[in-house]
Design goal:
The N and C termini lie far apart (62 Å). Helix 2 runs antiparallel to helix 3 and helix 5 crosses helix 6. The radius of gyration is 23 Å and the shape is elongated. It has a five-stranded antiparallel beta sheet. Strands 2-7-4-5 form a four-stranded antiparallel beta sheet. With 266 residues, it is α+β, with helices and mostly antiparallel strands. The protein has two domains: 141 residues, Jelly Rolls, CATH 2.60.120.280; 91 residues, Arc Repressor Mutant, subunit A. It is built from ten helices and nine strands.
């Protein structure tokens, strides 16, 4: 029974575009395991579930697949394995949630296991079929071992990070009117605690990240509107247009006016 596994599709650390949206309304005639290495929104019966890195989901045959990359991030990365087997007999070996997201804490072990399955499947050697089947079982054993319990400290930390990821996406979509204080309040934290956690989660301070978001907003306005530099400067929160021009030049190496003219000539 352990050998009766046919891997249909597999990839480790596969990079996808930030516009990724997987939608298979009738699912597949197979089991799909996905380990998300980037924030993602999973839709379950039309309800959005925003999850962060190291979330997983196991879809059983015939169940709708509907998930997409979280807005505000430049790319998307995941591990996944799609395989056919005797579903009931296979899953009876493991106490793992099905068709709903959960978190794991042993990312490297799981990625390594998926990497081997990817390599072995690509070689298409009959001699490796038994090994592949064993590794699929090993994968699910690792998932079960590394699964975070719902009342664990690690899961609470993941939920906190999820709030930060959601906030960051909102700010990147429209940074106007935001400040670090307002961002901290949106996460129900003091400014100092918010600052520490933000840097830990994203590797950048919230003030610097907000400045980057404002700059990207200004560049979009310069390219896709006829608004004056002074108007854009004011919308970005600058009281003096000279300060805005100085900031833009420091970061881009040219003034806002030069940036607009150069892009218009292309």
């Amino acid at each position: 029974m352990r050998r009766n596994i046919q891997v249909l599709d597999v990839s480790h650390r596969k990079k996808e575009p930030h516009t990724l949206h997987i939608l298979r309304k009738k699912g597949q005639d197979a089991i799909l395991f996905v380990h998300f290495l980037s924030p993602v929104t999973i839709y379950l019966e039309g309800i959005a579930n925003n999850v962060v890195r190291n979330a997983c989901i196991i879809y059983t045959p015939g169940v709708c697949h509907d998930y997409k990359a979280t807005t505000g991030f430049s790319g998307f990365e995941n591990n996944y394995v799609t395989f056919k087997t005797d579903t009931a007999a296979f899953l009876a070996n493991y106490n793992i949630p099905l068709n709903e997201p959960f978190y794991i804490q042993n990312e490297e072990e799981i990625t390594s296991c998926v990497e081997f399955i990817t390599w072995a499947s690509a070689n298409r050697l009959v001699s490796l079929e038994i090994e592949i089947a064993e590794r699929v079982h090993e994968l699910f054993t690792l998932v079960e071992k590394g699964m975070l319990k719902k009342d664990s400290k690690s899961l609470r930390e993941a939920q906190t990070r999820q709030r930060f990821v959601t906030l960051r996406g909102e700010v990147r979509l429209n940074p106007i009117g935001w400040s670090v204080e307002k961002m901290a309040a949106a996460c129900w934290l003091t400014r100092s605690r918010f600052y520490v956690l933000y840097k830990m989660f994203f590797g950048i301070t919230p003030s610097e990240d907000l400045a980057v978001a404002v700059l990207e907003y200004a560049k979009e306005r310069l390219l896709h509107s006829s608004d004056s530099v002074a108007c854009i400067s004011a919308d970005c929160g600058y009281k003096r247009v000279e300060s805005f021009i100085r900031m833009f030049n420091d970061r881009e190496g040219i003034t806002p006016g030069q940036y607009r003219r150069e892009r218009e000539q292309r």
